[in-house]
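Example (one chain per record):
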Amino acid sequence: MFENTAATDLTIGRSSVRRRILALLMAVPDQRLHLREIQRRVGTSPGTASRELARLVAAGLAERQAEGHQVYFRAASSPFATMVRSLLIVPAAAEAEPAPLPPEPVETAPEPIRPPRTIRPAGPAQEGPPQPDALGLEVAGRLSAVLRPLYGDRLAGLYLHGARARGEAGPDAEVEVVVVLDKIARYGDELERTSSTCAGLSLEFGLIVSRLFVAGSIWEGRTDGHLLDIRSEAVPV
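Predicted structure:
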């Protein structure tokens, strides 16, 4: 379980499913777990588990390993992940033999009713697409200033995406960035190389800064799937 601190919310977010998944992975840091096993232990749906695992991988707190058609996940070993693990209260028994977490009802609650969008005061109508969030652009720009000299010619592009790119971000929305490199040999190496920078920005601005690494050939060539949606809203930084 997690200590109930502001630092925990800052680094991990407020998703209870994400916290249970991370607690499970960090209770057995030397083991790899299959998606179905993780989903069963934390008592959620496969889609929710997959989405939260993707966020943990992007944040540098978990590692994804594929073997053929099988995909496994484990806790990351980066300094940032080690720091986050210190926020966990892991029972001693869990270190030796983790007991399955009690299942919880699959999340079937209806989507909350969203409040109507704020009506702007009378004046000239705003035309064109929504404008990116200013704070998101500032944080992404700070990250870009560090990564460009770090990667040099390997960096093909850096883009803000998600709610802050669409101009729909709430005050605590995370800053989501896509880092396009010439090629990616080991995804975990790129997370490790940038973990301290993202952790520092997260603490400075009081929100989560996550990054997704994509090889240039995939970024330019993929014409379907979730990456296509990201590319359609991406704002170059």
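Caption: The chain has two domains: 6-96, 134-236.
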